[in-house]
Specification:
alpha/beta, Rossmann fold, 3-stranded antiparallel beta sheet, 45% helix, globular
């Protein structure tokens, strides 16, 4: 495998701040714009499957790619097709959720979901929005979404997860993406999303989840992987237990609506 491609794959695997749709777009772009032989492609698929096990959309994409390879269909057509349909996916999700968001102007979200960005960008052309974004520790990727929305002239305020209750009272709804939609209707998303859902229930604020169909899982499995503790607190003391998890399960009963394409 070419060194440059290895470097790009490693970069994708080590990316802790991009949403799963952004990561998938990077994967597809890498495969589309580089000449990769069949044995290299199989190795890349194996590495990505092992390195990104929690992202259902990436796993489903790689499963689809493997089927194309086995049936001897053109992988190039697969990459092009994904590229061409991506924009249509967000247009479709926006059309499907507009009924629920048409009168919503103050929206609270978390993390750095590409789907959330695309929908808020479209909605702002109809309603001038005020968006409150949780910073999403420990990676603070909420800051990235805040910058992207602010660049589009959308009124944006960054808050900590500890401030959710204070600002949720001012909001019309909660809008999040999803890393996986389980078969039973539960959703897996960035840590802090469950707190949003629980507080949304308490304050009577609808909790909407938006995601494309690649996020649909065929099972109810969720394996919570512990991440480096030093991201929370780089201390050498053994007297204090430090835990760091990126994702958590949001039960179906706390979710007002899941909207896909």
């Amino acid at each position: 495998m070419k060194k440059r491609i290895e470097i790009e794959i490693k970069k994708i695997l080590n990316d802790k701040t991009s949403g799963s749709n952004d990561l998938l777009a990077d994967i597809n772009s890498l495969l589309l714009h580089n000449t990769i032989n069949l044995s290299e492609l199989k190795l890349i698929i194996k590495k990505l499957k092992k390195g990104l096990p929690t992202f259902t959309n990436i796993q489903n994409y790689l499963d689809g790619l493997e089927k194309k390879i086995r049936s001897k269909d053109s992988a190039g057509k697969f990459f092009l097709s994904f590229n061409q349909t991506e924009k249509n996916i967000y247009d479709s999700i926006f059309k499907n959720i507009f009924t629920y968001l048409s009168n919503k102007k103050n929206i609270l979200t978390i993390s750095n979901s590409k789907t959330v960005f695309e929908i808020l960008y479209r909605l702002n052309s109809v309603n001038k929005l005020s968006v409150f974004i949780c910073e999403s520790r420990p990676g603070n990727e909420g800051r990235l979404l805040a910058e992207k929305l602010a660049d589009k002239k959308i009124k944006t305020q960054l808050i900590t997860e500890a401030q959710i209750a204070r600002y949720l009272e001012k909001c019309d709804c909660i809008l999040t993406g999803a890393d996986s939609i389980l078969k039973n209707g539960d959703v897996i998303n960035k840590v802090g999303s469950l707190q949003l859902a629980v507080l949304g229930k308490y304050y009577g604020k609808p909790f909407y989840v938006i995601a494309d169909k690649l996020k649909l899982s065929s099972n109810n499995k969720f394996i919570q992987t512990e991440e480096p503790r030093k991201e929370i607190w780089n201390t050498h003391t053994k007297k204090i237990r430090v835990e760091n998890f990126y994702f958590e399960r949001i039960p179906k009963l706390l979710i007002s609506k899941i909207i896909t394409n």
